């Protein structure tokens, strides 16, 4: 052991240097100090200040009031937004400006960066001349024309000062970036408005007139080609920065990363460009990243996770020379437009993380954010982090991210893993391109896992209960989809179990993306029902619906598990069950997506006479409505004769107490647990009791 | 779209406030400024300085020279270590001390924290009285006794000043923590020696006399019970901090996280306590985390990954009130003891990340680090981060972590996921405790995946090539392990394929830790060989060796895939192949771990007459040596008649060029790719050509 800790292996190159030093400053036994420094250090380290852009003239752009109501309830993109941020900085001593008048000397901590109007040339780097000229024309419009143009636009308003304010806002962003790039300040906060990120090259939109951040980035890249070759724009405004994205969609010099609500395009701006699969084009492919929240209500947990899993690894790999935050504070807790819950300390943490990129060259440019209190405390937290203070603790670091947000983050990592090394590492080694498997030479030596699993199920059911295959005839599907007990033609009571391919619990090798089949197990939760039915000597039909068919002879291109489930169940009813003359009591047990086949059958055939009970386990799958084709009363019948079990966290329960799914979905019950296996385990007794009751309540069945 | 962006939903509570504010400061059309602030901000924000502990008296502890050699090549724990750090801080202007004499006023950026000797009471919070008294006794020992005690100790040395230096070092750590906790400084750097983290309660060790950080943490917890209830100690010294770990192993108030080389206990201190599975005991269970590098040579990529994946999520969840870094710089690039490559900027990044915990309450205490240049530039980078500068860019952010380090990080996450929510999320939801499956009710509805896969293989081979089962008789194993072609009793030439259960490529659901069996595929790379052999009308035997048996009737407790592979191959040879009288040419194709069965057979039976070729695909598995039981010349024979293909990155190739595995491992060849499937694909033609050649070179076979 000891040898590890000795210096015997000390390198030769450093040895000589150390020998020289020994003579000079080695001091081992004598207590008297003998220090003769080689040079007298007289360097004074003077840390740079944080830059601040603010100009009262940016408050002149405002909505023209047309009613008293607007005075009580002003437009959210309110001139006070920048004032309130400036004020809170002063109140907390980060700047010295007792009168809040926007003085030039603001003290020792922050440095005022003078704001100027962006020039036409600068603006034309991003915008069209038409767009510039239209905005210029607003300076001389009369009230009526201004109101008309406001009416015409996509969520924008104009007055005669809009053009100046917009040029100042844009110029402020440029000057903030310049001050950082030129080393005048260590980083900067541009408290500017109107915001910019929705403004596309040809048009205003979403309260935005000029695309401030995009104009700044383009001009920095143009004017500092040596020192700034790559810029990362991180847009944490709750809306997608469609304008910024568009400006750099084909540009590999700018990595645009946006976190925003998308909700299948229902959230503003709602264009397909905001979707997570938009990764850039041409040279810019791989340099656009949309992290799209599928729902509102996200907060610190989701943002921290996205930063840790996506933003920071990506940023480090990109190696930007400058980072610009498109800093809307409308994801902040308290913002009624954003309806999210990012806390001020989370904004601090995100700023702190981004400071570790680009040697700290960071510019924060205000975008949206409409709760005046929320944007003030959020901006204060960002400013404190910029001047060098550590961020506050997160109020609830134990909170779990929402599953749907986790899923989205995973999807983004997956799609971006095509471009970024850091994600390949995380997501596993995609040495097999899955979509190419069918045509590939690999096809000869691969087969789908589900085939093996169904075969094993058949083998077990055959061995344990003498099950046989039910002919599937012209369905053009594997012949082991429908299995049945040997007593099927004599039984009076039949349980029909309709299920997806069972789940597998496994250990995955993170390096190769493969699993060890020896330590992986298949969990077939329906076996409990099979055993129960077998013990009661019921006839049993077991139907397995594959969710997809990967390849093979079965024409997989137009395969749909939904249609397939419906077809299989209709086939089963029309060709087999109808002719089982002894059967007078049937119960369906549906598990997973396959339930759609059961519900479809119940709506499309007259089954009421014989079907006594329907038990469906949905876990997190979408509820399936019974659409009655023949008999309007079927919804009531279904509600009365079914139990539909959902996950505790199933979206159908919404955020409100006492919300109930409608009758056409059956009698939906909320489990205490989540997941197919857990909910089946939890409700097994309830389900079987319900079936037994329904079989005996013969007289009620009409 | 537009409706999303209007203020119609503005909350009532904020409305009234805003109305009031409207009267006061809303300013929309007039260009004249009308600002009447509610209060005049006169606060001045004064950021705290960073504390610095340094005292020249800590340099008096030194090794007593016994030869001129020690003067040329001094002991690595060299008194100049702290001087060099102090000097570089002065040279870079972080402190003002032109004479480097350790003055009290060191300028505007850092604040000198006076160092004092730790008191006996403080030390006794961690150490035994015997240990304290022994160290006290060294103050009066004569040279001979000192040398004798130095000789006796575990990598420690003593002189008459050791006790004072050690008390100062320990006191410095305490005072640094106190200054931070009391809010006198924002954070602190304690440039102290001798180091502390190897010193256990009863003994010195590894250059350490008192366990400085442990003593400081214990005393802070004792004296500031209100403000400091939890402390996180992050130990990035390249050696395991066995002393610190021991002091808090049963203490839930202190989370100890160490990153260190372990190498199966071969690296100092080399006790089992340093292993990654040591997670704490009793109340302290879950509050100890060892991240153990299985090899030297790690650097920024591995440390950044470990911080991002383990240290930071864990730290945020722990919510410490104070973070102490046990800051050895022996993982630094250039340290010949650590032999790792952490760069100064990586130390900066790690410090920056840790600053985001505990509201920035961070104390950095020096431990090891033996290259004087490396520790100086590393400490400078840490100090700059402490005063608030952003860290430099990593020199090579694109570098991939070593696979074995990734694997270790994954193992740590897995073992710690028992205690930490953040890892459950990442590692998947362990709702099935795997080890309990056998006894659990789940056993009735689960079955091992490998059984299903082998069954599928059998079905395919039966359908395609009419394969049948070979009886396995008394082996007490599944009956489908050995399959053979129908011509096995008439063929002259036989190919015996011995393989592990094939790999599965899959999509995993990160939330439930389950996979979709429909989009997962089994990759059976040996099928190419089967097809080839079938086309040449060879007899074929296909042997599947399960790597483990999870449960079932087959007595899994003492199952070993190694022994199993050996037994199955011997059984096959003794009971079947021996009696295949027509066969005069045999080739083995081994894949994966199962190769051990083939090599064992070749060493234990006289097979030379009939076995003409052996092809083994090892991927990343350990090479299997042929141990000749009967015939010493077998190693040569094996080398001549085999091809053993390894991954490109297989450890057998080491770091040096031209390293060759020994002959007993066969003719080992390095593939250009990694992984079983890729290497088989790459070398398929070479392997089959080799077999064909060997079959025809009849005359050479003796």
Structural summary, described in words:
Two copies of one chain form a homodimer. With 702 residues, chain A is an alpha/beta fold. The first copy, chain A, has two domains: 50-427, Histone deacetylase domain (Arginase, Chain A, 3-Layer(aba) Sandwich); 449-701, Rossmann fold (3-Layer(aba) Sandwich). In chain A, 34% of the residues lie in helices and 14% in strands. Chain A is built from 20 helices and 20 strands. Chain A has helices spanning 12-25, 68-72, 80-91, 120-124, 129-137, 143-152, 162-181, 212-223, 242-247, 300-318, 344-355, 372-387, 403-416, 421-427, 449-465, 527-535, 561-575, 595-604, 634-640, 676-696; strands at 50-53, 110-112, 187-190, 231-235, 254-261, 288-293, 322-327, 362-366, 446-448, 468-469, 482-484, 493-500, 503-505, 514-515, 521-523, 539-545, 585-591, 611-619, 642-646, 668-670. An eight-stranded parallel sheet of chain A has the order 2-1-3-8-7-4-5-6, with helices on both faces. In chain A, strands 10-11-16-12-17-18-19-20 form an eight-stranded mixed sheet, with helices on both faces. In chain A, α11 links the parallel β7 (322-327) and β8 (362-366). In chain A, α10 packs parallel to α11 (344-355) and α13 packs across α14 (421-427). The first copy, chain A, is elongated, with a radius of gyration of 33 Å. The N and C termini of chain A lie far apart (85 Å). Mean pLDDT of chain A is 86; it is low at 1-14, 23-32, 428-442, 550-557 and 697-702.
Number of strands of chain A: 20
Largest interface: A-B, 174 and 174 residues
- Low-confidence parts of chain A, pLDDT < 50 over ≥5 residues? 1-14, 23-32, 428-442, 550-557, 697-702
Mean pLDDT of chain A, to the nearest integer, reads: 86
What overall geometry of chain A do the principal axes of the alpha carbons give?
Answer: elongated
Give me the secondary-structure category of chain A.
alpha/beta
Strand content of chain A: 5-15%
Number of helical segments of chain A?
A: 20
Name the strands of the widest sheet of chain A in spatial order: 2-1-3-8-7-4-5-6
The tally of domains of chain A stands at 2
Name the helicity range of chain A: 25-40%
- In CATH, the topology of the largest domain in chain A is named Arginase, Chain A
Largest sheet of chain A: 8 strands, parallel
Distance between the termini of chain A: 85 Å
> For the record, what CATH class of the largest domain in chain A applies?
Alpha Beta
Oligomer designation: homodimer
Output the radius of gyration of chain A.
Answer: 33 Å
CATH superfamily of the largest domain in chain A: Histone deacetylase domain
> What CATH architecture of the largest domain in chain A would you give?
3-Layer(aba) Sandwich
